[in-house]
């Protein structure tokens, strides 16, 4: 106990962003008899910069904590395109303590996080009962975020197919947006999940970046040629920039090339 008190004394209280779709049981469904039951949970967190800057994906840390089942459900689905995400926040940060010298997270304040997120408990308990409780015949929530990554790859494949289709479109009609506001938001969430995944997989990130750099000039040409709407191009740009495949500066350069000021 003395060591624990010393750790809290020497650590600093800050907040950390929860990477969507990563909070999962570290030992399988080890304690699923109650929504309040605590299980060893592995999740990825990014300490929020004290100066207000946006957190960087490459700064994420894998942390283990004993988290109530219902709270893990909230942390897992919030910000993703799965489960009860429409009834959860698009982004969550939780109180943690860090080693001031290394910046490493030494503790997650689980009780305080549960208090802050109590408004979402009923939503999470319903999801837990339907998917993980002893009476459920659905899988335990131990999956890696492969579904989100596959969804991102499917979306990239859809865009590649759209490029081919655009080359054949000679109708002359003004292009209209293909994505609804809801689909654009789903694209943003998928890109956000992918950003953290790619930060842990540099070889895969290099392939995704190469694909984006190859597709970018074709996208610009299609917008300028009138076969792709500016709205669809913006959705594509936002996906690439949010996922980290391209930089914000590269996105802005392509945006200026595709949509030059009047008279240019």
Q: Your description of this structure?
A:
- With 264 residues, the protein is an alpha+beta fold.
- The protein folds into 2 domains: 2-131, no CATH class; 146-258, no CATH class.
- Helix content is 48%, strand content 14%.
- The protein is built from 9 helices and 6 strands; from the N terminus they run H-E-E-E-E-H-E-E-H-H-H-H-H-H-H.
- It has helices spanning 2-10, 69-77, 110-116, 121-131, 146-168, 181-200, 202-224, 230-243, 248-258, and strands spanning 12-18, 24-25, 38-47, 61-68, 93-98, 105-108.
- Strands 1, 2, 3, 4, 5 and 6 form a 6-stranded antiparallel beta sheet that branches.
- Helix 2 (69-77) crosses helix 4 (121-131).
Summarize the structure.
With 264 residues, this protein is of the alpha+beta class. It is 48% helix and 14% strand. It is built from nine helices and six strands; from the N terminus they run H-E-E-E-E-H-E-E-H-H-H-H-H-H-H.
